[in-house]
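Lab meeting, action items carried over

1. Structure of the two-component assembly. Owner: GW. Status: complete.
Input record:
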Amino acid sequence: MDIKKGQRRFIFFCLTPAVMLFIIFLIVPTINVFRMSTYKWGGYTDEKTFVGLQNFTKLFQSEKFYQAFQNSLLLIVVVSVITFALALVFASILSREKLKGQNLLRIIFYIPNILSVVVISAIFSAIYDPNSGLLNAILNLFRGSESAPTLWLGDQKIVIFSLSGAMIWQAIGYYMVMYMASMANVPESLYESAELEGAGRMEKFFSITIPLIWTNIRTTLTFFIISTINMSFLFVVAMTEGGPDGSTEVFLSYMYKEAYTNSSYGYGMAIGVIVFLFSFALAAILNAVTSRDHLEY
Amino acid sequence: MNNNKLAKLGISDKLYKGLNYVVLILLAIIIIVPVAWAFIASVKQDIEFYGNPWVLPQGFYLQNFVDAWEKAKMGSYMLNSLIVTSIALGLLLVIALPAAYVLSRFKFRGSVFWNMMFMAGLFINVNYIVVPIFLMLNNGDKAVRGFLGHPIFLNNLFVLALVYAAMALPFTIYLLSGYFKSLPKEFEEAASVDGAGYFRTMVQIIMPMAKPSIVTVILFNFLSFWNEYIISMTLLTTPGLRTLPVGLMNLMAAQKSAVQYGQMYAGLVIVMLPTLILYILVQKKLTQGMTMGGLKG
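Predicted assembly:
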């Protein structure tokens, strides 16, 4: 009996701090996001009025919200398609072909992933600088330096792609290392027998590599959507602050702005709830669309 | 198909291999150049930024670093970052290790529930809940001001470290439990026969064996704590308490108005250097750890 009691005490002692911290800083705030979205509330005052779903109806009539929605969706699509395609191709080259200097290349490709988003934003802001930036200097080699400089972060039509560029630069190495690890598990014998039957590199890539790491691709896809929504927020805060003229406002930057700058916490949290539901819905849809029979190897 | 045709045309594998090198090296250049550019720019004088961005610096203008370190206070921000990161890492290990051990090795009432809760915690996102956390701490400050006379929750490096540790709990517990589960039960049994209590068994037998996963946990969380800026920006409003990424954001803003390019790049190098050095030292462990505990489909 005594042993049982000692064990229970030990478990309690080990688990309590983690559970407390988890509840206070993760569970309670998450519940609060949902609860606060039904209030009209400035945040700093005690004056709170319950308004039900009024924040949400207001939200769906807001043009700014649709703008943010559109920008977020565009970023998700552009960044994910390019990152996935490039990461897969490069991972395949690095794990299939026996090249010299592989390790060094792998080390280099992963560097962006260890840098702070603020650092990356600072570097890219400098590269995109219309006058002293590297990108225009490179372009000027081809188009002559007299032509008007491209405003990478100042032109409403371009700026979202400039952001995408920085985000792809940051993400590509991470997914590459990820896919290389799963490609390493694909048995060499499959490639050998395919080769005997006369399959080329392209065929091997599309009918062996991709199907066999499909589960892994699906997992990363879900993860990627959620992380793109978050990353785009961090990049926007550090690089453009939503400008010029709202053309780079994304979900979370809009939420942050409404909550802090406009002091309408209730409304801000309603945005949070929508984004939360949106990302899960998108992940679920993609999960259903990409589902295939599981392949064993 | 395409490749077969190429082979028939007599274009050998060598050309294909060469093409691979070209593509890979191109990507490596795209990754390396922006980072290297920041390093080079950090030793340029402000006046050098008006000319051609390709020009190498005339000399090592180290005054930029002195200015960034002293005038822009990056030195004191570095100290803040060091304090926050080390406290957060210490707290995290002390709290997460016992919790992960208990959750993965003992069956008790609630073990299934808490395992699931921490798993679900992986999906809770910091960027949404930072607003409610700010409000919670702000309310706490309002409450304690009544009898303490001053706020204690906001603008407190220890509280920030606590929030960091809490945010890292789900992932850390997930990773550590995975490792603990793989250890054979015999170790505990042997320790029990030798008369060691639960606590001693955990500290002296199990923890030393978990060293590889503890290293992974430290590396990953070091990077995320050191690079974090949204929580830090929100919870620390006193300028003197800023952490490095937030300090860099301010330098970026200052550079836009006052044209202190050199200082900004020096600040950037100051933020990036510790992570780069750490990465070069441990890069193998880091990419291995990522595939070990990160996302396995």
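2. GW to write a short summary for the group page. Key points so far: Residues 84 and 261 of chain B are 28 Å apart (CA to CA). Chain B has a mean pLDDT of 87.
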